Amino acid sequence: MKKASEIEDCDDCPLYKNDCPGGWVGGPGGTPIEPPCCSWDGDEEIYEGMYAEIDYSPQKLKWMQEDFERREAEKKKADKRAENETTYREELQWIST
Predict the structure, then answer these.
(1) Rounded to an integer, what distance in angstroms lies between the CA atom of residue 93 and that of residue 88?
(2) Which of 10, 34, 42, 80 lies in disulfide reach of 38, CB 3.0 to 4.6 Å?
(3) Phi and psi of 4, rounded to 5°?
(4) How far is CA 89 from CA 56, 69, 77, 85, in A?
(5) 28-83 confidence digits (pLDDT tens)
């Protein structure tokens, strides 16, 4: 068991090769999937097996990538809709003045 602040790189990490493939994993389409250490603040106790439930299999990465892309598409659609509504309101305001 180690404190997160004591871990310098993947080779020092108890999770490396068993619970985490190390570094950033590329999903289908090339989008990186961040390793668990990206969310650590330095005080956590890190031990082998703590992330054993995370599946880095190609199929799981594909599903994670598809879910990410779906959420991004929904966000872009909502942003575009909000932008169009703002433009429409501005045009109505300009016409009424």
Answers:
(1) 9
(2) 34
(3) -60, -35
(4) 47, 30, 18, 6
(5) 666 667 777 777 777 888 888 887 676 666 676 777 778 888 999 999 999 999 99
60 in Cβ contact with 28 (< 8 Å): no
Distances (CA, A) of 26 to 14, 58, 63: 21, 10, 13
Backbone angles phi, psi at 24, to 5 degrees: -90, 135
CA dist., res. 23 & res. 37, Å (int): 9
Closest by CA position to 69, among listed 29, 36, 34: 29
| pTM given for the model | 0.42
| One-letter amino acid for residue 41 of the chain | D
- Return the domain boundaries, the chain: 2-96
